[in-house]
Amino acid sequence: MASVHAIRFHETGGPEVLRWEEVALPDPGPGEALVRHAAVGLNYIDTYHRSGLYPVTLPSGIGLEGAGVVEAVGDGVTEVAVGDRVAYGTGPLGAYSEARVMPAATLVRLPDTIDDRSAAAMMLQGLTAQYLIRRLFPVQPGMTVLFHAAAGGVGLIACQWLKHIGATVIGTVGSPEKAALAKAHGCDHTILYRDEDFVARVKEVTGGAGVPVVYDGVGKDVFDGSLDCLARRGMMVTYGNASGPVPDVAPLTLNAKGSLFLTRPKLMDYVATRSELTAAADDLFDVVGSGAVTIAVNQTYALKDAAQAHRDLEARKTTGSTVLLP
After folding, report:
1. What is the pTM of this model?
2. N or C: where does the chain have the smaller number of CB atoms within 10 Å of the terminal CB?
């Protein structure tokens, strides 16, 4: 049995709990594949696992997303073959590793048009953007939508994709620099949500009508205002909580604000089957491969320096996507 290095944690807490450890690398069993990572994706959900907001069994690996090459497969594997370039974005936990054995059914083959770093940076965030704007609420040409954290990893992908669809995008950001970045990636109107009344700005942009959908990965800081940005029968999509969990909301509030819809989705329920996963990935690969959506890998860290990457992510020092390099 070989061994590799991986980031693991034995207790929940801040970035300091992340450790660079030597771990055993078993041979792949039935239905499994051994993947040697070329790049690993960093996502905000990783901080939720590390902090304990999303409970995991300890000790634990961390990370849901990576790209690399298949080095071995177990019995019965038909999804991938030795030598295939592959990527994944839905776990299981443990992507922060030099190599790992994992279920072959979670892997998708990479086309030649997608490089390893882009793949590692875009799978979770890109598949998230895909289900949010193409399936959960299929945005149509001519619609105006509000996307919070428009300069984040999901935001930059979604803004470009929404523009490609023909939508008008209003995006909230935390700084003038992030506003410029969002505009360069398809965002039509940017709002500095810490300095401006984003509800008033949305109403101004939409002529008082509001938007049919709000996509919110920020959470507590913008949730209440987001409800007030919605048009009658609008959809509030709260898919993350970077600023903390959203407050409790009474169903009658949704009634009073215009018969609103509220959903708290997760990617895993939209790629629950192999066919859903491959269809979503193909959609993502097509839009990236065509050049309509570019993946902004704006930071790289050595995998062993994952704790510093977490510090920078939580301090809002990163933009776009970040990859960890084994």
Report:
1. 0.90
2. N
